[in-house]
Write a structure and sequence with these properties.
Number of helices: 6
Number of strands: 13
Strand order of the largest sheet: 2-1-3-6-12-13
Bound molecules: ribulose-5-phosphate
Radius of gyration: 17 Å
Strand content: 15-25%
CATH architecture of the largest domain: 3-Layer(aba) Sandwich
CATH topology of the largest domain: Rossmann fold
Helix content: 25-40%
Length: about 230
């Protein structure tokens, strides 16, 4: 199976999570190629949901194309989504992740924070022993880009690179930080959050995944966050 087929298999497996945990509910939907497979599979499945809160304009457009009702977070009755389905760029054994390869990290973090269950769908290449080989995306206010970059170098020793020509759904810029040694993902996530002008960073450690559906050549493995 190639990587796209694996992504599709993981996405398909997430349908069972919707059937079990969120029938008739509003669900959270992430962003990326794996999620695109999920949106298409959900639409084809006939599973009845009330609607979806989207983490990006791209996913919103795809959901709308399938006739799935778009719901804003403000409209969620008790403030909680039963599930949030999203991919990852890397996921470690404690289910901390690097996300934001597609640049949707801020809204992804917001929707994930409103969900009681984060279900990560990915192919096996995303599983790593330690985070940091994938450059860590940091969304920055445009006027602060250079200053935030300098502060990241000072704090972490990493090398920030401007994702030139890319503007987030929030009108901001992205720095992709390579060369990081991430021993404590929660601490680094918090430290980067303190930089003035940094909107969000792509570490999802303080709120990691609860369930992992990882597609391998021999099938989709389901596991729950250890501990
Ligand atoms: C987008 C993300 C995606 O979840 C991540 O980049 C994985 O993408 P893909 O499913 O295309 O491999 O965080 O901001």
């Amino acid at each position: 199976m190639n990587q796209d087929e694996l992504k599709q298999a993981a996405a398909f497996a997430a349908l069972e999570e919707i059937r079990t945990f969120a029938p008739g509910a509003v669900i959270g939907v992430g962003t990326g190629s794996t999620v695109n497979y999920f949106i298409d599979a959900l639409a084809a499945s006939g599973i009845a949901i009330r609607g979806a809160v989207s983490s990006s304009e791209a996913s919103a457009q795809r959901l709308a194309t399938h006739g799935i009702l778009l719901v804003s977070l403000d409209e969620i009755g008790d403030g909680l989504l039963p599930v949030y389905i999203d991919g990852a760029d890397e996921i470690d054994p404690g289910f901390s992740m690097i996300k934001g390869g597609g640049g949707a990290l801020t809204r992804e973090k917001i929707v994930a924070a409103a969900a009681s269950r984060f279900i990560c769908i990915c192919d096996a290449s995303k599983k790593v022993a330690a985070l940091g080989r994938f450059p860590l995306p940091v969304e920055v206010i445009p006027m602060a880009r250079v200053q935030v970059g300098r502060e990241i170098v000072r704090l972490t020793g990493g090398v920030p690179r401007w994702r030139e020509g890319f503007v987030t759904d929030n009108g901001n810029h992205i720095l992709d930080v390579s060369g990081l040694i991430i021993n404590d993902p929660c601490a680094l996530e918090s430290d980067l959050n303190q930089i003035a002008g940094a909107v969000t960073n792509g570490l999802f450690a303080r709120r990691g995944a609860d369930v992992l559906l990882v597609a391998t050549a021999s099938g989709v493995e389901r596991s729950e966050r250890p501990g």
